[in-house]
Amino acid sequence: MPIPACYNLPMLTHRIIPCLDVKGGRVVKGVHFVNLRDAGDPVEIARQYDEQGADELVFLDITASHEERDIMLDVVRRVAEQCFMPFTVGGGIRTIDDVTALVQAGAEKVSINTAAVVQPEIVDQTARRFGRCATVVNIDPKRVERDGRTVFEVHTHGGRKSTGMEAVDWARQVVDRGAGEIVLTSMDADGTQNGYDLEMTAAVAAAVDVPVVASGGCGEPEHIRRVLTETDADAALAASIFHYDRYSIARTKQYLHEHGLPVRMTA
Known about the structure:
With 267 residues, the chain is α/β, with parallel strands linked by helices. Helices cover 36% and strands 28% of the residues. Helix 2 (42-52) packs parallel to helix 3, helix 7 runs parallel beside helix 8 (198-207) and helix 9 packs across helix 11 (249-258). It starts with a helix and ends in a 9-residue tail after the last helix.
């Protein structure tokens, strides 16, 4: 399947994307996918990020797959009503009907993680029905030692289950099936605020020809600058630095602008 024009053209600006990890209807944030703490109401937080000039928003129902339940469509609808920026939703997707329900609830893009591993054909189905630009695959790798070398092993079910697959190979497979974007979340870096996993991000971004969103470990704007200049990542996703008011979207973009990175500035 050829890659559409929207992904053949170079990105004019780097996207700064806050992420809402949602559990039980509340935004939460943890470290290494565990020890979750409350960060607020998703609808209110989404509204604030929209006003601050975020380029996109990612909403992940992080326990839906593990708990084998549907995503909270009512929360998705209410968030969509507050957002005028592109809105990606994931969590609890099992069938193409689930994907359709999310799009009808207001998602512009749908992020598939566990379901893509369990039944990879859902990536093909989503791309055929809604287009590659709406088909996002979220990959959650963790560093493991295998045969004397370190590999980036893909995990599912909110990081609870190892698949044995390597992130670079899996990224190539989902792109071949129709994924138009990859959100790459380092389980090792997640929530540490010590910076993105540059080695992992560089390896995956160099292996595919669709946008890669770096995720996991952001603690300050410098971390975003590094991942966008030292790898081929197109965008950076962050949570803790925005949720707990360490940095605003505007301040982060100003920092990147001052360091020569093309970003969409807001008033």
